[in-house]
Sequence to fold (699 residues):
Amino acid sequence: MTMIFGVPLAVFMGQLMLGLINGAFYALLSLGLAVIFGLLKIINFAHGAQYMLGAFAALLGLQYLGINYWLALLLVPLVVGALGVVIERTLLRRIAHLDHLYGLLLTYGLALIFEGALINFFGVSGSSYPVPEALQGGLNLGFMFLPTYRGWVLVAALVVCLGTWFMIERTRLGAYLRAGTENPALMQAFGVNVPLLITLTYGFGVALAAFAGVLAAPLYPVSPTMGSSLLIVVFAVVVIGGMGSILGAVLTGLGMGLIEGLTKVYYPEAANTVIFLVMVVVLMLRPAGLFGKEA
Amino acid sequence: MTFNKTLLASTIAVTAMMASGAQAQMSNDAVRIGYLADMSGTYRDLAGPGGLEALEMAVEDFGGEVNGVPIEVFSADDRNSADVGANTVRGWIDQQNVDLVAGMVASSVTIAVTKVLEEAGGLGIVSGSAASSITNEHCTPNHIHWVYDTYPLAHGTAKAVVEQGGDTWFMLTADYAFGHALENDVTQVVEEHGGEVVGRVRHPFPTNDFSSYILQAQGSGADIIGLANAGSDTVNAIKTASQFGLTQAGQQLAGLLIFLNDVHAMGLEATQGLLLTTGWYWDMDEQSREWAERYFERMGRMPTMVQAGIYSSTMHYLNAVDAVDTDDPMAVRAQMAETPVEDMFARNGRIREDGRMVHDMYLAEVKTPEESTGEWDLYEIKSTIPADEAYRPLSESQCDLVNQ
Fold:
């Protein structure tokens, strides 16, 4: 059997595949963070909680309203995104003129409130969300048995990431968004409704998190703490990629998934730390991040 | 954990006014019990607020006071951090004169806390932790280990599995004190019975995504994948294994530490047939059922073995305080050890000199959805492991308190 650094090729390939799937989650979540930071200059600490709300909304929708997975994939981002719009209109807007730190504190507080409230009702053991029927079973890739659902997650996440990138970098709306980031006052003078743009952007970023939450629901136990454990890693990914860089967030997310996957084979004890090691090195060599513009 | 200073001040004032000789042996005119547990993290549901409820139930059933002084209950969240746990307990003992520390879940926290208890001359009853090292190399005269530990878990489950023909094992181990202890105990049992551990992977605690480790386990070709982890880690591992078709391909999972709440959360579909060792089950006999139903009325959930153990150990402690007429830790500890434990929790229970409360343990099998008659009808008790055989024999003990 072909061996790579003492690991059979098949196992190695399998780990790369799984790393890529985890990376797709990192990419999807860090993309939302990057979009929000890019336009609103808000470090959205509620992102993990919004991801968790997405998963919970899917679970509760299924249990109480009979909303199936596919409908949830469509509806949940809209509902949670709408909650994001409300948060932006009623809370974030009031502190928009203050230092970024206040936005961070506010969103962090919101995250703790969402998490605490759900822990109170559901505990932390979590519940399981069934894998939709059409995606049950698995594919034999030759080097590994890939559960169909995980394959779907990879495809869906990549499509959404590329779609978002295309919308922001290649469309008129995206051009407004990018211009709004650079110089909101001038945009306003041109007759563009910048406050509306900001509200919708925040709502969109939150909807991305909720979408990731629905994707994650059948994979991981749906529990109130599922977001907070992921959020720190996702922040590290955004820092490595460069704050506010869309493509940077996506590529770094996938890359970090791969690095983490390989660490799990060669030195599993460090799997939770390796991303932070990369972050330290990147910050030392390129403080603006791999894809960030030097200030 | 800010202590209510007003309450303290008024307590002191009242005590000063009614200073009486009869209470001279009770420190601070109150028996104070501090409940330390993971109240919000991955181990919340196996002890957590439900354990606090069990403790308060014991205090109420006891009548709320002992030797004429009130019983006061404190609680704190250790957040599975050894530092937080040790500092909390130090504060409790130094500033608030807490007489008994109860609860204690993550083994790493417990080991740190028992060191504090030993230095400060306090008393602790460990109900939630699993590491057998707590009454082995880490034993102190200041703590008792109540519900279970990794020794009977490994011996009960691993022995049963090897005897059924599962003799090659791959260990999936949580990378901290408890996981290591369990892995060692299992390896020993498997090898003693002619099996072999062909590989292992130590995963960080806690871990959300087990797919990579399950793939490694799959690649190992072992018959049995032993899960030396607990709480949400075990739940995640079992779910992931079923997604990757591990059991369909002929490999079998052996859960070494599975709590009632885990089985309840995963459902019988995913867990049926799983063998496990438990220290208590709510439906095991008349006494346990009667108590569990009272608990259910308060909490809306059936108690885990840890929550039942917290009730049992608190009662045993209060009875001892009552009997010796003092809350002096060493006197109470001695009295507790002299009295056999026979209640809604323990059968043939007694406290050994190393601090281990040995009692009958049970090998259980998770029921199939067809066999189960209700939401909490989850286990079938297959056999009883007698108290004297269940735990590590004193002849193998590394504890300094044991005369060899």
